[in-house]
């Protein structure tokens, strides 16, 4: 009897060990021919392709993680982010190490690791030339209307003084159109407090109008000067964007399938889709669109890499915070194996040294 019980216990222990070994083996040897298949698409500075080799922050993070896991793997490239996400969802790859932002819609389709990088959704635009902006504003209706109002008020008080002075002070103010011009001249000189003294009202009515104009001019010149200065102030696009709804006033582009597109769709912001950051930067450079909304570090890197800092800029305003993670097919057992190692890697000195170059 004891031998039978011992045999049963041994059998349970033996087969459970086999099952555990098979489970571990299935985790450590996924993919094709025992190799892990990692889906990627070029996304500088996180995934950079140089010939047949790949580099970048995401590649470096995976290599640090795999120093512990010691898995065999191979990369499988895709032409765009939207194709890559579909591949992960359809189990064409075991995971993707691309900088993918964790969002609610994506969590319904995919599993994610712990975040390995904190980013922001940024905005790129064409740099504005200050001199040209001033010239444009000088010929704007806002500026011209302020000038016309000022001239109109000067003419009004010059005309009123002329009405009183044209007969009793004909030598200084005169008759007809010429006299009205003299009244305009006196009004302008009085308003600016230049005080030439070549013309001055002599009648009671003229002096009364002059007295009113002196005090009114102090108030009006201040407000009108402020209005003219405001109309000449260069209004940058960055000054006009206070919240995400303000983007609807501009032509906006973003990368198809990105978290930036999800954000724009969430707020019903009209946008044009591009395949990647290169195409988006080119459209901004060619003035085919006003704003390129996408991941801030990717925008900055692409502008730096193409030496476009004098031509394009990334606004200081950001739209939201993003957390980059590895992405997996739904229900993947790799998440549980990779997560602890990834967390330990993020605390290492090697990772801290790498991350300094991307902050």
UniProtKB/TrEMBL annotation:
Task: Spell out where the chain crosses the membrane.
Answer: 143-164, 176-196, 208-229
Where would one find the signal peptide in this protein? 1-21
Bilayer topology reads: Multi-pass membrane protein
Which molecular function GO terms apply here?
ligand-gated monoatomic ion channel activity
Keywords from the UniProt entry: Glycoprotein, Ion channel, Ion transport, Membrane, Receptor, Signal, Transmembrane, Transmembrane helix, Transport
Cite a single Pfam family from the UniProt record: Lig_chan
Main localization is membrane
Q: Where does it localize?
A: Membrane
Gene3D superfamilies listed in its UniProt record: 1.10.287.70, Periplasmic binding protein-like II (3.40.190.10)
Please provide one cellular component term from the Gene Ontology annotations of this protein: membrane
Q: Which domain of life is it from?
A: Bacteria
Is Transmembrane a UniProt keyword of this protein? yes
Domain Solute-binding protein family 3/N-terminal: where?
35-359
Protein name listed in UniProt: Amino acid ABC transporter substrate-binding protein (PAAT family)
């Amino acid at each position: 009897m004891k031998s039978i019980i011992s045999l049963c216990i041994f059998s349970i222990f033996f087969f459970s060990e086999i099952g555990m070994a098979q489970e571990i083996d299935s985790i450590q040897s996924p993919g094709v021919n025992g190799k892990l298949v990692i889906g990627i698409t070029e996304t500088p500075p996180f995934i950079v392709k140089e010939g047949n080799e790949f580099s970048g922050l995401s590649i470096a993070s995976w290599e640090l993680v795999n120093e512990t896991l010691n898995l065999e793997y191979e990369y499988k490239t895709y032409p765009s982010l939207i194709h890559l996400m579909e591949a992960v969802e359809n189990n064409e790859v075991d995971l993707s190490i691309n900088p993918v932002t964790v969002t609610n819609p994506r969590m319904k389709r995919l599993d994610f690791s712990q975040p390995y990088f904190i980013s922001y959704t940024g905005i790129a635009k064409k740099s504005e030339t200050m001199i040209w902006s001033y010239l444009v504003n000088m010929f704007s209706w806002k500026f011209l209307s302020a000038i016309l109002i000022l001239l109109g008020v000067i003419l009004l008080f010059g005309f009123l003084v002329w009405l009183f002075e044209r007969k009793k002070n004909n030598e200084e103010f005169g008759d007809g159109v010429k006299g009205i011009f003299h009244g305009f001249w006196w009004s302008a000189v009085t308003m600016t407090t230049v005080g030439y003294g070549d013309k001055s009202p002599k009648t009671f009515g003229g002096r009364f109008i002059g007295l009113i104009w002196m005090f009114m001019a102090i108030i009006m010149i201040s407000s009108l000067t402020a209005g003219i200065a405001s109309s000449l102030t260069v209004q940058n696009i960055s000054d006009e964007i206070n919240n995400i709804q303000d983007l609807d006033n501009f032509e906006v582009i973003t990368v198809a399938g990105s978290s930036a597109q999800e954000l724009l769709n969430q707020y019903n912001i009209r946008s044009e889709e591009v395949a990647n950051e290169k195409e988006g930067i080119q459209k901004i450079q060619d003035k085919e669109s006003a704003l390129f909304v996408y991941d801030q570090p990717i925008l900055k890197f692409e502008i730096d890499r193409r030496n476009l800092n004098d031509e394009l800029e990334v606004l200081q305003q950001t739209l939201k915070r993003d957390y980059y993670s590895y992405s997996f097919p739904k229900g993947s057992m790799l998440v549980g194996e990779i997560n602890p190692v990834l967390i330990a890697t993020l605390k290492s000195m090697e990772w801290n040294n790498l991350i300094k170059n991307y902050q």
